[in-house]
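Hey, can you fold this?
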Amino acid sequence: MREKWSSRSTFILAAIGSAVGLGNAWRFPGLAAKHGGGAFLFVYLIAMIAVGIPMLMMEIAVGRKTRQGASGSMRALNKKAEPIGWIAVSNGFFISIYYAAVFAWVILMFLCSYKFAGFTGDNESAKSLWMTLIKTTGTTSGYTTISWPVFICLAIAWIACYLCIRKGTTSVGKVVKYTVSLPVICLLVLAVRGFTMDGAMEGLARLFIPDWSALQNSALWVDAIGQVFYSLSVAMAIMFAYGSFLDSKSNIAVDAIIIAFSDMLISVLAGVVMFTTMAGVGMLDNMSASGISTAFIIYPQAIVNLTNIPWLNAAFAYVFYFCLITLAIDSLFSIVEGVSTAISDKFNLNKRKTTLSLCIIGGVLGLIFVTGAGLAWLDIIDNFINSYTLVFTGILEVIVAGWCFKTSKILDEINKNTNKFKMPKWLFAVSIKFIAPVILSLLFVWNMFTLFSGGGIYGAADGYSLTANIIGGWLVMGLSLISGFIVKIIARAKAKNGYVESDIEWDQIAEEA
C-alpha cells in the first residue's frame, strides 16, 4: 500500500518547504533590487498566477491521480511521454548534488559565525571569510586543494538529508513542522533588527515602490518568470511525488494557492530583511542578483556593521545562517524524495534502500565541490540545468498536458473536492495550452541566445574553458535528456529476469474508496 501524508497540513508544509529554499532568501531580493523593486514584484505576481500556479496544480493533480512519481505520471498522460518524466527526475538528481554542496557551505558558515565577533567594522575580513574557508581557486583547476571543513559539512548535509526522509512521509512530516516555521521566525528576528536601523524606510521604499520604467527592460520579465518557475519546484519531479502521497479527498485547488502564495510571502519577507539591513548599513546599492554572492560575500559585510557590539553581530550571523540551514534542508530532501519515488515506483524497489543509495551516490559525486575547483564547476552545472534543461522540461510537460491529453480531465482532478474555490477552466486551459508553453519557450530561447551570443557569465571570457562547459554543462544536460532511454534499456534488461513494466492509463485508474 502506498504511503500517505498524515494530514493536509503536513502536505502543505512539506510542499512549502520544498518551494521555499535558498533562492527565496538571496536570489529574490537581489532580482528585486536589480529590477525596480515593486515593478519586479508586480511582474512576479502576474507570472505566479498565469504560469506558476497552474503548473503547480497540474503536477500535484496528476501525481495524486496516478499514485506515481514523475515518470509514471507522464506515462499516464501519454505512453510516449515517460522520458519527459525521467528528464525531470534527472534534473532533480543533478540539482541535489550541487545543492548539497551549497548546503554544506551554509553549515560551515553557521559553525564559523563566531568569527564575525572579531570582524566588527572589518569589511575585507568578512568579505573573504567564505572564500578562504572553501579554498576556492575560482577556476576549474585546483583539484588537489581540498577543504576538509567543507568535506565534513557535505557529509553532514547528506546524512541529515537521509535521516529526514528515511521513513518517507512519516519522517518528512515530523521534520517540516520545524523546517518551515523556523526560517520564518529567523527572518522575523532579522526583519525587526532591519526596521530599527537608520535608513530602513529607504530600503522599504526601494523594495515596494515600483519603478515602472523598469517594465521596459525585457530582462525583468525573464528574471521574474524564471524566479517563479524555479521557486515552485516544478519540472524536477518533486510535486508529482508529493502529489502521489495525497489522500483522494484532498483539496488541490486551495492547497496549491496556499503553497504558492506562502512561497511568495516568505520571499517578500526575505526582501524586507535584505533591503532594510543593507540600507541601514549603507550598502543598498551593493545588493547582487547572484545568490551565492549575496549570502557569502555581501551580507557578511552587512553583518559586521550591524552594531558596535562584537558578540551581537556574531549572534545575528548565527541567526542568518541558521535560517539558511532550515531553508536548505527541506529543499534538498524534497528533491531527493522526488528522485527516489520515481525510481522505486518504476522498478518496484525498496524505497528506503533507494533513498540511501541516492544519498551515497550524490555524496560521492559531490566530492568535486570540496576541492578548489568546486565553485567553478558548481557555477557551470547550475547554469546549464537551471537555464536550459529545467525550462525545456517545463515546456515538454505543458505540451503533453495541454496538447497530448485533455486538460479538462486534469482540471476535474484539481477541482474534485473543492466548493468555495475552483480553478477557473478558462485560466487553467489557457495557461497550460498557450501561456505556459509560449512564456517558457521565450525564456528558453532568451537563455540560449545569451549563451551563444557570448554575453553570458559562463563564457570563456570569464575564465571557464570550452572543455569545462562541455563536461559540466553540455554533458550533464545531455545525460538528463537521454535519461529516459537509459531507463528503457535497463527495463528491457531486467525484463529478462522476470521484471514486468507497469502500464498506467489515466482512465483505467480506479478511484480510492
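Oh, and this one too while you're at it.
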Amino acid sequence: MVKLINDPALRVQNLSAIEVERIEPLDIQGLLRTIWHGKFLILAVTSLFILAAGYYAFAVASPRFAATTTLKVETDHDPLAGPELTTMGLATDNSALNTEVAMLQSRHLLEQVVAGLDLGTNPAFNRYLTPIAPWSVTGIRNRLRDVLSGQQTATPDAAAIHEKTIENLAATLSVRSVRDTYIFEITATTGDPAMSAMVANALARAYLDDQVNAKQAVTARAFDWLAARVYDLQLELEGKETAINDLVVANRAHDAEALDALSRQSMETRQRLRDVQRALGNAEAKLDSFGATATNAALSDRQRLEADVQRFVDQAAALEVFQNELDSQLASQSASLIALQQLQREANATRVLYETFLARLRETSVQRDLHHADSRILAPATAGKYVAPRKVLILLIAGALGLALGILLVLGRRALRKGFITADMITDATGLPVLAQIPRLRIRKPRRLLDYLNAKPSSAAAEAIRNLRTSLLLANPEKVPQVILSTSSVAGEGKTTQSIALAHNLAGLGKRVLLIEADMRQPSFAQYLDCRGRDLGPLIVGDLALKDAVTHDTRLGADILPGKPTNQNPADRFASSQFAEFIADLRKTYDFVILDAPPVLPVPDARILAQYSDAIIYAVRWEKTDQRLVMEGQRALADVNATITGTVLAQVDTQRLHHYGGVHMGQYGKTYFQN
C-alpha cells in the first residue's frame, strides 16, 4: 500500500515523502493447514447436513410427479369459416402468446378444473378434509398463533375453502410457451402420477372449450342483433312499399305515359292558343283598317271580321282555361311522380340493407355450428414422472453447504480464538522463547501429581518438565539461575503445577531445592503436598530459624516452605529489606530456590519478587489465556525492568494438539506428545 502526504508543497519539495506500507501476503498454506486441522469438525458438520437432508429427502418430503400436456396454436384458419369468424382467431405475436399463457393460469379456467374434477373433495387440494394432528408442525403453529393473537382460529366457510382449493391447484400448475414456436406446455405436479395427468389434461380441455364457448357467445350476440335488425328493416320496407302503393292509387303517379300525353296535350293547347291569339290579332288589325263611311260591302266584311274576332276571343279564352287546367294537372302529376321516385329509392335502399342483413343472418345461423378452438392438443399428458424430491441433488447441496459451513466454522474459530495454540504463536506475539510445552495431566486430584511423575518418569509430562529444566538452565550459559520465579497473567494457568514439577525434576539431579509458596493470598500447596501453611513473617524477620520452618517432602525430594494468609499485605512484606536478606541467605543454603508467585495482573507481588529472581518462567494456558492478557503481563514486568526468561505453554490438550500437526518447541526442536 502506498500512502501519499496530503500537503502539495511537501510532495513537490520532497518526493521521498512517499511512505510505502508493506501488505502481508495471504497465507494460503496457513489457511489450508487450518482447514486440515479442523477436518473432523468439517466432517462432522458436513455429515450432520447430509443426515438432515437425507432424513428430509427419504422420510419427510412427499414424492412429486409431473405430467405435461402439449398444445399447439392453429395458425391456419378454417376455409369454411367466414371473414367475421376468421378475425376472431388467435393472434400469433409474442404479446398474444404471453396473454394465452396467462389465460391458461387464470382463475376462470382453474374454477372449471376444480368443478370438473371435483377437487374440493380431494384431500391433496383441500387440506381441510384431513384433521390436523395436535402435535404436528401445523398444529403447534396454529396453537401458537391462537395464543399470541388471543383468538381462536375460526373454521373457514365454503367460499374460503373453495378459494384455498383454487390456490392449491394453481400452485401445482406451470405453463410455458416454447420459445420460437406456437406450442404451450401445461405441467401439473402432484403427489399422484394419475392425478397429475388428469389435472394437466383437464386444464387443456377447459382452455379449448373456453375458446369455443367464447366464439359461440360472440356469434350468438351477433345472431340476436342481426335478427332484430332484419325484423326492423322488414317492417320499414313494408311501410315504404305501402306508401308507394297508396300514392300510385291516389294519383296514378306511376303512369309516366299519361304524364307524357298530358305534357304533349299541354304543349299542343299552348300552340293552338298562340295560333288563335295570332289570328285574333290579324282580325283586329283588319277591323281597325275599315273606315266609318264604309260601303255596304265593306260593312259586310266588317261584320264578318267582328264575328271572327269574337270567335277568336272566345276560343282564346277557352284555350287559356284549358291550358291552365292542363298545367295544374301536369304540376300535380309531376309532384306525385317525384314523391313516388323518392319513395322508390328509399324502398330500394331499405330492400338492399334488408337483403344484406338477411343474408348475413342466414350465414351466421349456419356458421354457429362451425366454431372450433384456435388450439389443439398435440400430446395429452400421461402418468406423471417422478420429479421431486431430487434426493441425490439434495444430498449434494447439503454436503456442499455443510462443507462450506464447516470451513467457515473452522476459520471463524481460528479468527475468534484469543488463546495460543502453538509455540510459534507465542514467540511471534511476545518475542519470547517457549521453554516447554507441558501437557494436561490425566489425574483426578492435584495430590496425585507427584505420584504420577514418580510412577511415569518417561511420560510426556515428565519429558516436558525435563525440556523446561534444560531450556531454563541453558538460557544463560554464563550464569545458571538460582532463584527461579514462576508466575502467569491470571490464576488457573498451571504455574503451581509447573513449579512443583520443576522442583521435583531439579531435586532428581541431586540438587538442594527449596520450593516457596509465595502466593500467600490464595495458597494452594496443601492441595498438592503433605504440608501445612505457616506465616512466613517470623522467618523473614529472623525470629524463626529456617530449619524449623521448612518441610521436606520425600515424594518431592525437596524442601517446602508453604505459606498462609496473614494480616500483613504480602507485597509490603516482599518489598522489605528483611526479605531481600532472606533470599540472600537462601542462595547460600540451596542450589535452586523456586518462588511460586501470584499472577502478575491482579496483584503486584510477582513484580516485586521478580527483583530477587535470576529467571522468570511465565505460564500460558494452552488455547485459554487471552493473548491480550499475556501482552499486558509482559509489559507489567518490563515496566519494573524484569525480563521474562521464557514462557511455558501449560495444560496442552495433546489429543487436540495432534490435529495441529505437532507442537514447535521453540528453538529446541519439535516433538509429539505420546503417553
